[in-house]
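We close this part of the discussion by returning to an individual protein. Part of our work consisted of pairing the sequence of a single chain with a tokenised description of its backbone. The amino acid sequence and the backbone structure tokens for this protein are reproduced below.
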Amino acid sequence: MLRPIQLFPELTDTVNVRYKVIFLNNVFTFAGLASLAMSLIRWNNDPFLGKVDLLFSCIAFILLWILHRYHKMVELIASIALWLCFVQFLTVFFVGNGNATRSGLLLLILAAAFYLKGRVAGYSMLAILLSLVIGNHVLGLFPSDYSNLDLLSLGFYLLAQFFIIHNYESLRETQTSYLKALNSDLEAQVQQRTEQLAAANQALEMEKLNLTRLSSTDHLTGLSNRHHFETRFAEYPPSASRKTADALILIDIDNFKKINDTYGHVLGDKVLKSVASCMQKHSRIFDITVRWGGDELVIYAPRTNLKQACQLAEKIRKHINDLPIEESGPITISAGVAVLQPGDSLSQLLNRADKALYEAKQAGRNSVYAAAPA
């Protein structure tokens, strides 16, 4: 079922074809009925024109049937229809007598040429119309009741229609070009804004990550800070169903206050950073290394029993003792190891590790002691 033509269709190839089909459907229907009516009216007065009208009425209905059956051939059908109507209108124009409105047929066919086949076909049709009408009037090939003034008026009408359609087509092309350029500019601006927004979001995410890292990291050693570790411990408490508990190693740099007092805080910071780096390097990937405060450091070892934690602490103690710090000489640490018991809080675990650390210092430092089971 063909729908009525819309006033402002979108300018796409598919839509153009669709609206040409609708346009021709309406033209063939109207032309067929009009030609049939005119053939009945003219038959008695002018049998020749009556036959011409009847012939073209049949042709219009045949083209209408072809259009519905083969609508994909709309361009070919439009060309055939255009030239057939052109022949019919010229025949009526030259042969018919006493019909002062028949010149309007030429204007209609010219408008249809511009609409269906574009400006090139319209220009050609206009040239043919003017040359045939003026040539017939001068040579007298067909009888004509038109005066010189009638021919001059018709010529002006045809030229006026040409300029109107030409200006309309030019305006539409200019507007289409402007809209395409405007659309391209808008797309470029949208793309630019999208890229800027994506860059701003990426920078914001990076800044957010940096802030998160800064808020969770000790700025001197690069280890996790105390607040971050306490937060993680509270958010992810160890499961009581585990077969292996977590372990905590509390480390204290031996004679660190003496190093600061003797060599200054610059060397003290260097020693602290070297010890922290050694801890990170030789601990396991899933261990959490923390600067607890001052020269106290922590290694939290998930799913590690007491023996394994003591072995880890001893390995790190030996590597720290081998650190090449010429200004202060060998650096040593003392470590206390404790294992998390069911129901333990972080403070209870740290308290037991601190007691083991105290024993290591009392025993002469540079050693690892394990806390007694609770």
In short: The first helix runs from residue 13 to 42.
